[in-house]
Amino acid sequence: MSDEVLATIDGPLLRVTLNRPQKRNPLSRGALAQLREIFDAQAANDALCLALVSGAGDKSFAAGGDLRDLEQVTTPAHARALFDLGNGALHSIRGFPVPVIAALNGIALGGGAELALACDLRIAAAHAKIGFVQGTLNIPTAWGGGNDLVATVGPARGLRLLAEASVLGAREALATGLVDAVSDDGEDFAAFIARFLAPWLKQKPQVMRAFKWQAAARKLGIARNETDPRDRELFAVAWCHEDHWTAAHGILDREKAK
Asked: For position 137, which CATH number holds?
């Protein structure tokens, strides 16, 4: 395995980093394969409660597909295989059992924007930019990102962003709903990330799995009668877990002490 994508486990947090900052962290076929391998491998890790995807350096989250690599994709069969590869990698993120947050440390363009929208939330440095610029290459979204965009900002706004190939600054993206939080001007982005993640990391893994499922089900448009059975099971697991009873007994003990 190459080092285009790095993965480390920091307690309950899975950190995934695109690691070609000198090339603006492009998404080659190798990088996409690594992303899928990482998320598929960690999906069964019951100790995780959160994952973070970021880009190395301070200029680029992911500048899109690696055109040097992708210029070898020249036939419809090759293009279908590329779609399957990229969409499969992003599906591993969409379906990851705990929330995945994209930390936009710089530009997220084209396929990089698709990667960001496959995550559950996006937080951004003040200088970051995001844009679905695939139209400038006379192609649609390559890995299912158009569907994620429309699910996030609505069909009309999503269609406009796609058709205009708009590149939005962080605060405009916040107002549009493409990102969920933006650091202050001059704020250290690593410190901002740590502050944003702090309350999430206080949650228990089994609880975060339930939260992720509920959000993902709504995003995917799964009918309520289809989500209730899994909601029921996830609730039962969390209710019977010792973490719940420790918290509940703590409250009862404090009430008795009054």
From this structure: 3.90.226.10
**Upper half-sphere CA count for residue 194 (Cβ side, 13 Å):** 6
pLDDT digits (tens, 9 = 90+) for 120-148: 999 999 999 999 999 999 989 989 999 99
CA dihedral in degrees (31, 147, 113, 167; nearest 10)?
A: 150
Q: Please indicate, yes or no, whether residues 185 and 214 belong to a single structural domain of this protein.
A: no
Structural domain for 119, as ranges? 5-201
- For the entire predicted model, the pTM comes to 0.89
pLDDT band per the 50, 70, 90 thresholds, residue 119: very high
- Rounded Cα distance, 141 and 77, in Å: 17
